[in-house]
Amino acid sequence: MTISNQPLRPPEAAPTPAPGQPFASGFLDRYSVRQKLLLVSLLAGLPFAVAGGTLGVQAYTGYQRATTQAAVASNYLQLQNLQKNLRYIRGSEPRNVDRARLAQIQADTEAITASMSRTSFSDAQRLAGELSTKVQRMVDDVNSNLGTASGLTDQINSILNGELLSLFTVLAQSGDLNANARPEALGLVSLSSSTLPVTLPNSGGYLIDTLEVLERVRTAQNGVRTDVQRVEVENSIRRGREMISELRRESDLLFTNFPELASTLKPQYDAMFSDLDQSYRLMFNELVVKSKTNLTVAEALATLNPTLESQYAAFESTTKQLNRIFGEQRQAALSELLLLLLAIALLTAVIYLLTQYLIRSVLGGLSRLTEGAQALSRGQFATRVPVTTSDEFGTLATTFNAAAAQLEANERRVEAERVEQERLQNNIGQFLDVTMDIAEGDLTKRGVVTEDVLGNVVDSINLMTEELGYVLGNVQKASSSVTSGSRQMLSSTEIIQQGTAQTTQAALNVAQQTAEVNRQIQDMAQLAQATAEAARQALLASSEGQQAVQETLSGMQGIRATAQTAEERIAALSERSKQIGQIVDTISGIASQTNLLSLHASIEAAGAGEAGERFSVVADEVRQLADESAEATRQIAKLITGIQSEIAEVVRTMRDNAEQVNQGYAVAGTAGQRLEQIGELSRESARLAEQISISTREQVENIEQVSSSVQDIAQTAERSQQSVEQSRAAAEQLQQLAERLNASLTRFRLPSQ
């Protein structure tokens, strides 16, 4: 099994901005996608909006202009009515003025003033005010019957050619009636605002001039005119006819260019021209052709005034036709405006619908991507976004699905890693329990070797534990052997001690016996007479001495054998202590390797992150156990070194004792030989009485030597006993050390061998 050096780590999450971190500071970055798309749509529709607005403004301006023109043309009707009613009373005596007509004039003036006040034309409002003042002054004069027909005519002409005519012009200018694309409308405007308002009153004014001549002719000249008056009437009629001819040419040109107007207006104009021509004919016949006339002013007015209806019927038809055109233009402008508004509305609706479609299309894909991203953020990695387009959103959806598939695969891998990590944690927990048992001394425990990153470490720890158990088993065996050897050594030293004690006692006995022999020999020397008795006693003493020497030799032989046995055992004990030292060295090496392995395991655990924290604790416990084992082996090595030193000292002492025992044995052998000689001398003493003195002196010398040898033996035995006691003390110390070692090893539960 191999261990990967790559640490387990969860998949990296997508970067998200931290709380409080600012987003991009661009102008558009603060708006949503919908708002951005709407902004783009607005910008895209801005040219259309500007164009539509411009067209709308133009159409609305045209509509307003047409409305204003129609309103102005409508005001023309009031001006025409006032002009007609004023012309009805022009030339009449104030007392003869129709009061109903006068009231109508007041009503028309008030209506004009009210209409002008509703407009924004300041000049028209000013003229309307002045007109109202003049009309009111005229009405007051008429109601007061002040003045003459000529004065009333002057007042009416002042109104007709002053404020009233100016109102036509000002309204045409203020209402911008000439700003019209239709040429027939321009012709009608020209007729309604300048030609007819001027021509009709002025041409009628020339008739009024003829009526004034008629009034003078009738009142002052009895109906007979003068040539001067004839010329005056001719000039007035000529100027009037010229104005009418100019009006006819203008109208005929308009009708020629616009036949549709001719079909509507020409009959009224023909009737007007016919009535005007009759009016001029009447005055021409009465004042030019005839030299004397019977026609009165009242009769003339009764004939002339009805022609006003045809004149203003044509004027009204012209104004109505102009109103119709303005109405058509207003309606066309309104239709154009409505059509434009409808087009703008339709374009806006199309743009809106297109925008909404684009927004739904964009936001649909974006919302699906957003929902998918939110689902991914919630851990739903099986989420997929349907690919419904081939645009960038389709590419993004495809990329999103690929990323989601990758995230799902990563999730499965992470889940597998999590399960593996949980299994690793469980294995670590189980291994921690095993290591705790091992740390408590139960070396029979073994961790389960798995296929994960912990497998090699567990296998190494199991192997180390097995080797440590084997080594500790050997240490226990060696300790037991040391204990047994020390006990045997104690037994041997006890035997040696007993032998040396016996040797010492025998040496003392021999010393006493030699002293007794010496005394007896001296007595024999003194008592030469008792030679035989002394010889027997000497023979007996020599026999006893020989026997004691033999016993001493036997004891010395036993001491030498015991010493040799002790030396061999001590040598074996030294060899065992050397083996224990080698075992301790092996344990120390294993502890060092264990420490190194635990260090590597700590490094591996540190690299594993949070998953290796508990394993790091295990490695630390193993390293501490290795340190304790190393410390124990150092103490054992120290003890063994001391034991080996003591054993070496005991070996040297035993060797010295052996040499001394050999020397004592040699002395004892010499003593035995001498005692044999004493025995021979004692046997010969009976027959060699004459040599008793010589033999006695020789025996005294020999006995003194024997006594000296016996004393040496006693001293040697004492030294041997001291050495044995030292050996016993060393053996007892070795036994105590072995017992402590056994006590230290009892905390370990070793596997059965």
- Are there runs of 5+ residues with pLDDT below 50, and where? 1-14
Round the Cα radius of gyration to an integer and report it. Answer: 81 Å
Domains counted in the coordinates: how many?
2
User: Which class of secondary structure composition applies to the elements?
Assistant: mainly alpha
What would you call the shape?
rod-shaped
CATH superfamily label of the largest domain:
Methyl-accepting chemotaxis protein
Q: What is the count of DSSP helices, taking H or I runs of 4+ residues?
A: 14
**CATH C-level class of the largest domain:** Mainly Alpha
Give the helices and strands as they follow along the chain.
HHHHHHHHHHHHHH
What CATH calls the topology of the largest domain is Helix Hairpins
The CATH architecture name of the largest domain reads Orthogonal Bundle
Tell me the fraction of residues in β-strands, as a range: under 5%
Which whole number gives the mean pLDDT?
79
* Largest sheet entry: none
